[in-house]
Amino acid sequence: MSSTSTATAGPVADSPNRTLHAWWQAAPFTLVFVLFFLIPLGLIVMVSFWDFNEYELLPAFTLRNYFAIFEGCYTLTEHGDFCVSLSTYLSTLKFSLLVWGITLVLGFAVAYFLAFHVRSSGMQTALFILCTVPFWTSNVIRMISWVPLLGRNGLVNQTLQGIGLIETPIEWLLFSDFSVVLAFVHLYTMFMIVPIFNSMMRIDRSLLEAANDAGASGWQTLWNVIVPLCKTGIIIGSIFVITIVMGDFVTIGVMGGQQIASVGKIIQVQTSYLQFPLAAANAVILLAVVLMIIWGLTRLVDIRKEL
Amino acid sequence: MAHATESRAPGFWPLATVFALFVLFMYGPMAVIFVLSFQGPEGGLTFPLRGLSLHWFRQLAEGLGTVDIGAAFLRSLMLGGVVMLFTVLFSVLAGLAFRKKLSGGNALFYVTVASLIMPSIIVSLGIGLQFRLLDGALKWLLEAVGATTMLEEYGTALGLFTSALGAHLTWTLPFGLLIMFAVFNRFNPAYEEAARDLGAAPWQTFRHVVLPLIGPSVVGIGMFGFTLSWDEIARTSQAIGDVNTLPLELQGLTSTVTTPAIYALGTVTTVVSFAVIGVTVGLAMLLKKR
To answer: How large is the ipTM?
Structure first.
């Protein structure tokens, strides 16, 4: 219907009509995000100020939930530790930074190899797909696949005992901070490889030749030409990895043997006890922290551009 | 090849080693549980293999403890199918819309990206909360109009094809839209113009010109939709109600099941993922040939 009118009407007259037509096409897509993303987020913010008892949620405007989260955080505990909330946030942040650093270096190296050392484009595509296929398989399966390797009687301990390097099995290989970080790196390095590889493929190869001709060493070319030009990919990958780890509760749960705390886990536990206002307040704080990190990351780029 | 080796840039071999180790790191553990799922009846969670058998697959088919694996499998399969369908339909339509003048399109794009990078537990909590508030409102409404029988029968609005479907779409649609962007960035509008000049209606242009050209990518979007839904845990966890999908059951089983049956389950789900990838690649190649 509108197509006939666009055919006959002039370009000025049909402009609002066309944008309306376009919005009809985008409507189902938009509706999903309004219904299942924007409204739920709004409700989280709203309910974080509500009151609750054992049976129901009580509409109100109270800061009780926020105070409850930071209860006892103004001083150190008698053992000189931070309060539970603060130490959980710090622990989650520690995991994020650690995983971010490792995946960045590893992802950059893999992407660099694919982009600059593999010459035929067919081979490049094949190896790239080889790196991305695990992304389409189950995360939990990929987590438990470490059990036969890292367990008390796992392959690593068997081998180390077999060659006489250790006498008793190493206990910290599984269900520990180590296995959590290992699983994160295993699962999410792909999120670094893809955007960084994408950035690298857009780099004009003649720039590298120019750097070489001007007498730059390999490291100088890498640091002064390639890294700055990959900045977008690095930032996108970093945002992915950091936000995933900050909100995680599945990996930390399974690989930590349900013993390690994380912000996501707190939210999950509070939700399962139907303490929605507390969970919502925690979600708001988590969201604020994540947004600050993203803001910081994007600022980092601009500052470098200024210099 | 010997000549090529000599002319390799410095750093090739160290990086090639890193790459090979990375691939081993990616696939090694998965290969191990694949092998161990064929463990003999006496075998345990780790090596050595005590014979080869399908014992643990049979165990799996009979159900693990109280968990009905078959039912969860079917639920996940159905949900994945529906998510795939909606992801393809909505992403392609939205992709077409973004090619036109879409005022406010930037805002929609930012919301989509925000959904992609939002910690999943927050999305999940939000949807769970939304549906519980909806339950409360509906019960209040039913009570107000005095529909007592309906009130007694009413359980919850949370479910596989309501809240869980919505939660999955917030995760799959951003990927779908990004793929559509990538497709249309490389798309030559001259074909469409030619079709239009020849008098084709917009629907005909889409059906006979645009769709065959973007076909392989559309199949790819379908694969993203299915496989991402098939393995989804974090967004589903708080937004599904009483029933569970296969990965959620699997996550629960990791702490209770201590036999290779869990590896058998892992092998089965991975085979499904690979089958979907295989079918997709085959279909995309077929479409490309035509």
So the answer is: 0.87
